[in-house]
Amino acid sequence: MSLDLDITGTVHSVGPIKQITDTFQKRDAIIQIDEVGNNGQTYTQHINLEIKQAACEYWDGISKGDRVSCKCRLRGRLYTRRDTGEEASFTSVDAWRVDVDAAWSADVDADAAAPGPMPEPPAQPVPPATRAPGVLPSEDDDKTKEDIPF
User: Fold this and answer.
1) For residue 95, which of 63, 121, 131 has the smallest C-alpha distance?
2) Residue 136, CA atoms < 13 Å, CB-side half-sphere
3) Measured at the alpha carbon of residue 69, what is the angle toward residues 38 and 57, in degrees to the nearest 5?
4) Which of the residues 5, 28, 127, 136 could staple to 15 if both were Cys, CB 3.0 to 4.6 A apart?
5) How far apart are CA 81 and CA 6, in angstroms?
6) Mean pLDDT confidence for 101-126
7) Measured between alpha carbons, how far is residue 40 from residues 34, 43, 121 in Å?
8) Percent of the chain scoring above 70 in pLDDT
9) Is pTM, for the whole model, over 0.85?
10) CB-based contacts of 70: which residues, under 8 Å, 6+ apart?
11) Residue 79 near residue 88 (C-beta atoms within 8 A)
């Protein structure tokens, strides 16, 4: 099963870049999608996208009303709730590429060129002091669990 998604919609908002640690940054964007139900009625959905690392700068200059197409990955992770000790999960939509539809966008000048496709960002490097070369972090890695923000 593929966890890759293509999402096309209208930008509702783009948040600022947040520097979480010395080596990790992220920002959020909300995309509005109009979904037509079985009854023919339109239902507006607002999807929160997480943008991480180098992909953050791809959203500079994108604003409310712009029509965008995003390449995303659906991500999920288990964690233990601090308040109850129960196991829970969270899901995120990780947007790693964005293209602006200049013909649709409300704020795009007719003479301006639309930005081209963005390359997939490189994987975040693992500090060499914590793992042997070629060893990837696992779900059971204590350091990985500490990175969860709640």
Assistant:
1) 121
2) 4
3) 140
4) 28
5) 31
6) 51
7) 12, 9, 39
8) 67
9) no
10) 5, 6, 7, 8, 31, 49, 95, 97, 98, 99
11) yes
Tokens of 41: 């009625």
Check if the beta carbon of residue 102 is closer than 8 Å to that of residue 116: no
Q: For 127-149, write each residue's pLDDT tens digit.
A: 444 444 444 454 455 554 555 55
Render pLDDT for 16-25 as a digit per residue (tens, 0 to 9).
Answer: 999 999 999 9
The rounded distance, in Å, linking the Cα atoms of 57 and 83 is 36
Q: How far apart are alpha carbons 73 and 6 in whole angstroms? A: 9
- What backbone torsions phi and psi does residue 92 show, to the nearest 5 degrees? -135, 155
| Separation in Å, CA 124 to CA 53, 79, 120, 145, 148 | 8, 21, 12, 16, 16
Least trusted range by pLDDT, from 10-24, 45-59, 101-115:
101-115
- For residues 89 and 76, the answer to whether their CB atoms sit within 8 Å is yes
Sign of CA dihedral 126, 135, 139, 91: positive
